[in-house]
Design goal:
The chain is α+β, with helices and mostly antiparallel strands. It is 42% helix and 15% strand. Strands 1-2-3-5-4 form a five-stranded antiparallel sheet, with helices on one face. The chain has a two-stranded antiparallel sheet with strand order 6-9. A two-stranded antiparallel sheet has the order 7-8.
């Protein structure tokens, strides 16, 4: 559980006066998440989620919360921010920007099935299509420039072989024709624990903290790396086919995206290896914190550089 900023009942009661969602009945810290402070929130009008953002600034929140509002309005199954009485998507609580979103029913499945891979393929494609006319844009703050910068910051913690591996991946990313890849709004963190299923039916996408404007294939790669694998992190052809076939039912991937998928799978693995490594050694201070194992993605990165046969033809 991660609770970086503690909220007292009296403080929350005052904050809720900004909204038309009734009186506070209960609230409690959410036993999941790494980046932000999250609370379950119950009022006499319903159930919600309160998030205090620990690293996003107002520009970032304008993009992230605005995107959720836009996607929900287009019919994408996702959390949507509650607009307060002043028409704002967020305001300040305990010196942190805070927002309230609707609580989506359902639960996380730790080992997604083939059918669930199919469902998330459909929904991610709907997400990407709906996001194409979202007018706001925000660069990916976990993109190529960040990979270069953070790897330098972590150099004293890396072995020579690890530094060599990172440099090889970055060089391969830069060597690819990135300009040809379609751009759009991304979730940026579409792991299985950011999607809820209710009675085996996808009920909604949550946690948009790393949403941004970047290559759509990068979002696909992040999702494949988490949903379409076995316990060792190896890609499973049946789950991968289910996901990609479903995605292409809604949005047909371009030839350059098929070509770019292998390197983007590596880029995605590298991104989460380095971010987890940084969080492990430089954690945010909080009441309760949880840091995930970075080696999971280091192993995945090595696998992605060797497991090429499955990726030679991802066209459907």
């Amino acid at each position: 559980m991660s609770v970086y900023t503690k909220v007292e009942t009296e403080e929350l009661t005052v904050f809720l006066n900004r909204y038309s969602i009734g009186k506070l009945l209960n609230f409690s810290g959410i036993t999941a998440g790494v980046t932000n402070t999250n609370y379950w929130l119950e009022t006499d009008s319903g159930h919600y989620v309160l998030t205090l953002f620990e690293h996003l600034d107002s520009l970032g929140l304008d993009y992230v919360l605005g995107l959720q509002h836009h996607l929900a309005d287009k019919g994408v199954r996702c959390t949507a921010p509650i607009i307060d009485k002043n028409g704002a998507l967020f305001s300040i609580l305990n010196y942190r920007p805070a927002a309230i979103v609707n609580r989506i029913p359902g639960s996380v499945y730790q080992d997604p099935t083939i059918d669930q891979c199919h469902q998330i393929g459909l929904e991610l494609a709907r997400f990407h299509v709906a996001g194409l006319n979202y007018r706001n844009e925000m660069p990916n703050n976990r993109g190529l420039s960040w990979l270069k910068s953070i790897s330098k910051d972590l150099r004293l913690l890396l072995t020579t072989s690890e530094q060599c591996l990172i440099n090889l991946v970055i060089n391969d990313i830069e060597s690819f024709d990135l300009v040809s890849l379609p751009l759009g709004s991304l979730h940026g963190d579409l792991f299985h624990d950011n999607v809820l299923f209710d009675d085996n039916c996808l009920s909604g996408i949550i946690d948009f903290d790393y949403a941004c404007h970047d290559y759509l294939i990068y979002d696909i790669a992040i999702t494949v790396n988490d949903w379409c694998i076995n316990a060792e992190g190896e890609l499973l052809s049946n789950k991968m086919s289910a996901f990609l076939n479903a995605y292409n039912e809604i949005r047909v991937m371009q030839t350059c995206e098929h070509s770019g998928l292998p390197i983007m799978l590596q880029a995605a693995a590298l991104r989460f290896w380095l971010s987890r490594l940084y969080d492990k050694h430089f954690p945010l201070k909080g009441e309760l914190t949880f840091v995930k194992d970075p080696n999971e993605f280091k192993k995945m990165l090595i696998l992605r550089r060797s497991q090429t046969q499955l990726l030679t033809n991802t066209k459907t």
